[in-house]
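tool_call: predict_structure(chain=1)
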Amino acid sequence: MADEPQVQSQPKLPKALFPHISAHAPASSSSSSETKKDDSITPKSSSGSMVDQDGKPYVLDKNGKPCRLCTSAAAWRNLTKQSKAATATSTSAATAASSTSTNPIAQETQNDTRDCPPDVEALGRSTWTLLHSLTATYPEKASASEQTDMRSFLTLFSKLYPCWVCADDFRAWMSEPSGKNQPKLGGRKEFGNWMCEAHNEVNRKLGKKEFDCRFWEERWKDGWKDGRCD
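tool_result:
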């Protein structure tokens, strides 16, 4: 009897950009038989994110388009590179090469991404700096109106944050049924600890190292005691 042909196993999809999100990808209104073939996109991973043809994960916005503010810079560059490669013609390529070679500013800045729109990581770092700075300047003992203002801010923030999957996740965490994650706004210390725990929750979900919340004031308010911030 002839040997049966070996069946090659399918390659595993990469770890999702947001491993804590299981159902945030916008639902498709058409069936798979109606979907047009797109060589730059492979099927959804089990986490609800998408992966491009090189296996890099990215996230869709609520309209089903790639979300730049929800995706890492590396994945976004890869996605746009694939898109340009699929649509570019020899004429447009020649035109782009000509304009770059005659434009010294373009030559100087084409590899500098510091003034580009932020990716999900840059947005997150800047946002945590803002949020922790808010706790550092929060009153030691907040009045009722100050607590109301901050609660309103956090509610709006969790709705308007540009990375919509991140916003949904933060809002869901705050509204956990037991109420244990509701903002603690009585004063600076408890608000600072609450924000630190919120940050650590995201760190855990993304597989990052947690911060020791005993030192949040040194990190975000007073500076480290070894004098490195003086």
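agent: The chain has a mean pLDDT of 75. Proceeding to next step.
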